Each structure stands twice: as structure tokens, then as C-alpha cells.
Amino acid sequence: MKIPESLNNNKGMVLIAAVMFMAIISVLSITAVKVSTTDIKITANNKTAQQLFYLAEAGIEEARQRLSNSGNISDGALSGDPDWKVFIASDDASASAKGYVSTNPKQSRTNRLSNLNFIVKIEHQKQEDPVGSGTYKVLYLDTNYQRVITSNGNNIYILTSYGISSDGSEKQVVAEISKMPPLDVTSALYVKSVTTVGGGSLVNGNDLCGTGVLPGISTTLNSTTVTINGAGTTVDGTGGHPSIQGNGPNMNMTSIINNYKNYANITDPGGIKSIEGPWGVPQNITSGSASCSVSNIIYVSNSLKLTSHSKGCGILLVNGDLEITGGIDWYGLIIISGSLKFTGVGNNNGIAGAIMTGGTFDDNQISGNTEINYCGTAIQNVTQQVPTQKLSWKESY
Questions:
Q1: H or E stretch including 51?
Q2: What's the chain's average pLDDT?
Q3: Could you tell me which of 344, 387, 384 has the C-alpha nearest to residue 366?
Q4: Secondary structure E strands in 10-134
Q5: Which of 214, 287, 331, 367 is the most exposed place for a label (fewest CB within 10 A)?
Q6: Residue 30, SS3?
Q7: Pairs from 76-82 (Cβ < 8 Å, separation ≥ 24)
């Protein structure tokens, strides 16, 4: 029997199809392997990049801590010099790779506090002097959170941190930081509403701890809105007796409290209570040797009434009214968004620092042999303890 020609022509088609199928499978397998390899490499690269980022962030945090009052990095006499730089690195060679010049008296290097592999460059924020071609001026953060060319503020620092891997790969993070703007303390007692001082109280703008002098009381209103009652009541300071400065600057206490509360190490819901130790115990509160071994930032979220003989050190932020009965020893600043009612009891109790109130509706009342003494050292000590803040941050690629 003769086999049809069409069947003869189909001999080997199965083999060809099988070979083509195997070729397709091979291509797909190779592609899958390549994709998997690429995915593994991408994952590894992402992991490395993440590790380098965390190293760079660790460098930023170490620099922030060491620029704080408790740290060991300071610009000192070079605080106004645009060429000042400090490098945090394990050795001179690695710091030199980031611009460190060991022979430059305006530059220095300090060792890392950890074994993490990062290098940090710290320098002043600056801008070109508008009146001097090619020269630069250091920028400061003023009380209005503006970057200005003036020495009336806190330095702004640029931190450039490099996280470095064992193979030399890098990730760079840049942060702009500064301490909180200095508080504009204008008097021993700052008020924005009608105020009465009596009962033999003392409000003293002469620096208890130094030689400076401020008004005893400053008010945003006319000076006649402050009334002095009773024998022995004294408001002392600049401008004669009583020392009252009218039409003073209008400061927003709520804004100040909101800025500082983020750095509070103690928070309190308010209410009626006596605090006789947990907030600090000042010494010699009414003398020139007034001091305290701790400095807290205490944020009270509502009105507060302190009874008995309360004590504390640092910055007390009250989001509401403050009433003090039974006396108080306080070393530092008391900032109140509302009004103040202060009734002291006995001698040798009072404030070494200043009180700033923001209430404009309810009257302020100070009586009962209270002492409010301006103390510049106390204010400086407690405000310097405030941590640095990040003004800006970016990750560089």
C-alpha cells in the first residue's frame, strides 16, 4: 500500500515541536533566573541604602547632642565666623576626605562616640554679605524664627552626615538645626491685663544673680493699669519707683508655650496640687546664690493651682491660668497663657528668674509677701538646656 505523500512530509514534526518547546522553556528559565538575580540585587541594594541612611541619621543625632549645652562641641569665640567647622570622624584621614584641614585653626576634629561608620561635618549657616562682594555672614535664628544676619539670636548649624559602608558606598543626610530662639524677657513680671500688687510683695527687676537691671513690671497696656497697694509693697528696677514700663512689646505666650512644650520632659494635666520635689528643689531662692541642680521643662495642659509650698526648677509652661497659694520656690521661668493669682506666705519664698503672662481678660493679682526677682543667670541656665531643633532636613542622593 502506498503511504500518502502528506504523511511522509509530516515525519519529524513532533521532534521539531519538542525541540522548540524545550527552547522556549530554556529561554523562560533563563529569564526567570535573570529576573530573580536582578530582584536579589535590588533588594540587597535597597538594604544597603537603608543601612547607610540609618548610619547617616545616627551621625546627625550625635552631632545634635554634642552641640547641646551638655555636649562637648562649641563654636565659642568663633560663633560669628563663617569659616568655622568641626568634623566628627574616627581619624584625620577620613575627615580630610570630607574637607577637613588639620592645619586650619578654624577647623577641628573630634572622635565618634560609637563604632558606627559615619562622618559628620558641622558648620555655620551663612549667606553672602549683601554689602560685601564675595564675603559671607553667619545667619542667626531670632525671636521671630527668622534667619537674620545679626548676633541677636542663636547660631544655625548645617550638619552634613555621611553613612559609609565597608566597600565605600555612601548615603548623605543634611540637617539644619538651632537652639530655640532666645526668649525676650523684658522684666521680672510681664503682663497684658490689669494687675494689682500688694500685701508687702516685692517685684524686683534688679538682677538678683548679677549686675543687669530691667523694669520690675512691663505691660502691654498703659502703666497706670498696674496698681501698687499696701505698705511695704515694692516694685523696683529701671525707671524709678515703682518701676513699671507701659506700652511694652506684645508677645504671644500661647505661641511660646506651643514651641517649647515639644521639649517638655514632664507633662501634667493641671488641677489643684502641691509639688514639693519631683520638679526640682532650688536653693537660696531669694539670694544672689540662688541655684538648682536640675533643669526641667514642665508642660501643664490646663489651668493649675499650686498649694502648700511648691517647688521647681526650669521652665514651667501653663496652658491656662496659674494660681499659687501657700508660697513657692521657683528657679527659672514661668510662662502662662492666661492670668496669674499669686498669694505668698511667710518669708524666703518666691521666684528667681521671671514670670510672663499672656491673659488679656482676667486681672493679675500678686499679694501675700511674695518675691518675684529677676535672675538673668537662672533664665540663661534653664533656656540653654533646651535641646536643638531641626529647622530643615533632606536626604541627598
A1: helix 13-67
A2: 87
A3: 344
A4: 85-88, 107-110, 118-124, 126-128
A5: 287
A6: helix
A7: 78/106, 79/138, 79/155, 80/138, 80/151, 81/106, 81/124, 81/138, 82/124, 82/126, 82/136, 82/137, 82/138
Residue 150 is given by DSSP the state: S
Reported confidence tier of residue 43, pLDDT bands at 50, 70, 90: low
* Least confident piece of the model among 14-28, 119-133, 169-183, 279-293: 14-28
Q: For 68-102, what is each residue's pLDDT tens digit?
A: 765 678 887 788 899 999 999 999 999 999 999 99
* Residue 104, number of CB atoms within 10 A of its CB: 12
pLDDT digit string (tens) for 253-268?
999 999 899 889 999 9
Closest CA to 100 of 113, 86, 90, 111: 86
Closest CA to 229 of 367, 370, 373: 367
Q: Write down the pTM of the prediction.
A: 0.75
pLDDT on residue 34: 64
- Contact in structure between 163 and 56 (CB atoms under 8 Å): yes
